[in-house]
Design brief:
Length: about 325
């Protein structure tokens, strides 16, 4: 790792934990923020020259419930609503302060708040926000299409303005992104009604078949070129189940055939080189299902690549993650 004695005050990162787990079917993601910190995330970012401010974990204790109608097929709607309203407001404040906010999850329902807040800031500044959804799942269900009623599977649809959760934010402004601003990448598990909706909306999907055929380099370059052509900025929503379960077993919704360790690093390295990334989610890490912290350490290494760590900077671990690949 580079020997950086002093952080650059112009390179500022704010870390905020969002220990929400009720949007998913399996408990345990509330431990994700602590696992990422324990795996050395903050130390790594500081070593890369960033001034890192850890804002701790968000709490919704004392946040009042709203009295809007509760939609059907949206489990734990009231509690998730409290999280999303609170997180959206904090995300807006952080983005507005000029830092790069990193949101530590927690299940993927948190993105309904984090991305909305960042999108509000981008709208204020006249920039177009694109969202790169690194995930085995599209998360493009609505209460009308969902099979499970789990709200972590509705996040991307909500962000694109799909109906069904219209009162979720209460008085917090909703800043939906357009269908051309969402980029699904690494997708390999879709419900039929969800897939039909994606086709109807013409959402860009780089599934694992395309990745196998064309390679991650060509496909991620298409995303980068698209964002640059429209002078936009990029939010990366990184679900650790984007990775193959052999690389990242610590998730509650493992799907075989995911990105390899090296493919994922190439994605992150190219995103860093682009200079487009202004905010980040790390979601669905479930330490309860992990193997001695392996998934958390892998996630931290990938975030290192996203923020500029080079291959020549990496110490060789005594128990190398992915050393058998």
């Amino acid at each position: 790792m580079s020997d950086v004695s002093r952080p650059d005050p112009t390179k500022r990162i704010a870390v905020l934990g969002a220990p929400i787990e009720i949007g998913a079917s399996q408990r345990g993601t509330l431990m994700g923020p602590a696992a990422l910190r324990t795996a050395g995330l903050l130390t790594l970012l500081e070593g890369l020259g960033f001034a890192v401010d850890d804002h701790g974990d968000l709490s919704v204790a004392g946040v009042a419930e709203l009295d809007d109608a509760v939609p059907g097929n949206a489990r734990h709607y009231r509690e998730i609503q409290r999280w999303i309203r609170t997180l959206s407001a904090r995300a807006y404040q952080l983005a507005h302060s000029g830092v790069i906010p990193i949101f530590l999850g927690g299940d993927h329902s948190l993105s309904m708040g984090s991305v909305n807040g960042v999108a509000r800031h981008c709208r204020d500044t006249g920039r177009e926000l694109f969202v790169l959804w690194l995930d085995a799942h599209a998360d493009y269900n609505t209460p009308a299409t969902t099979i499970t009623a789990n709200m972590h599977g509705m996040s991307a649809a909500f962000l694109c303005g799909e109906p069904g959760l219209d009162g979720l934010l209460g008085q917090e402004p909703r800043a939906s992104i357009g269908s051309t601003q969402l980029e699904l990448f690494g997708t390999r598990s879709l419900d039929k009604a969800e897939n039909d909706l994606l086709r109807h909306r013409r959402i860009s999907v780089a599934d694992m078949r395309q990745i196998d055929e064309f390679g991650v380099g060509i496909l991620i370059r298409r995303v980068i070129d698209k964002v640059k052509a429209r002078q936009g900025v990029l939010h990366v929503s990184f679900d650790v189940d984007f990775l193959d379960p052999d690389v990242a077993p610590g998730v509650g919704t493992t799907v075989p055939g995911g990105a390899t360790y090296r493919e994922a690093h190439l994605v992150m390295e190219m995103l860093h080189d682009s200079g487009l990334v202004q905010s980040l989610d790390i979601v669905e890490l479930n330490p309860f299902l992990d193997e001695r912290g392996r998934t958390a350490r892998t996630a931290v290494e990938l975030i290192g690549s996203l923020f500029g760590q080079q291959i020549t900077d990496r110490p060789t671990p005594t128990n190398a993650i992915g050393s058998d690949r």
